[in-house]
Amino acid sequence: MTSMKINTPKTRIQRKNTQAILDAALEVFSRQGFRGATLDQIATEAGLSKPNLLYYFPSKEAIHVTLLTQLMTTWLDPLREMDAAGDPTEELLGYMRRKLEMSRDFPRESRLFANEILQGAPRMIGALEGELRDLVEEKSTVIRGWIAAGKIAAMDPHHLLFSIWAMTQHYADFDVQVRAVLGPGHDPLAEAEGFLTTLFTKLLRPE
Question: What's the chain's Rg over C-alpha atoms?
Fold first, then answer.
């Protein structure tokens, strides 16, 4: 008779240490990239010994995949919220604003994602070709419906979404460059919101 393995709930200490490792890994990966990061660096950042870290995660890749999986869910939520029954311009502007808010609130996560993509997405290509592609196709169909109804200007839905990603995530991934160019006394994301609202409002206006 084979025995069944029962997954017991994590204790408070185990949950605390798991989260400490993930928070530390996020900091290290966003700074060093996957290749430059080491388990020793992550353990030190988390305030744990390396053997203790390995009790929770068997490898650097396991930590990285966990972070990317969590990130994909967070990244897709704003797009899922786009409502086909809403006002098209307001729905798209709302999506743009939520993506800007994510650049403000989750800059390390954005850089982690960017580093993974720059390396060819070896650990998340399946999610990009599956979950992400499916959601983009679903929302592209919604956008095409708005275009066909004459509610927004005609354009390629995919490249509209790509442009929103590029113009919002830029403020997280290239924060140092943005602040260096603007100089002191600027609030880049607040200024970006006003500019992008004007830009996309004009872009979406039906001819």
Answer: 20
Per residue in 142-183, pLDDT (tens digit) is 999 999 999 999 999 999 999 999 999 999 999 999 999 999
CATH number at residue 94: 1.10.357.10
Contact between residue 46 and residue 27 where contact means Cβ atoms under 8 Å apart = no
Residue 171 structural domain: 60-204
Distance (Å) of CA 142 to CA 19, 150, 163: 37, 13, 17
Q: Same domain, yes or no, for 39 and 78?
A: no
pLDDT digits (tens, 9 = 90+) for 83-128: 999 999 999 999 999 999 999 999 888 888 888 888 898 888 988 9
Task: Count how many Cα atoms sit within 13 Å of the Cα of residue 169 in the half-sphere of its side chain.
Answer: 15
The count of structural domains within the chain is 2
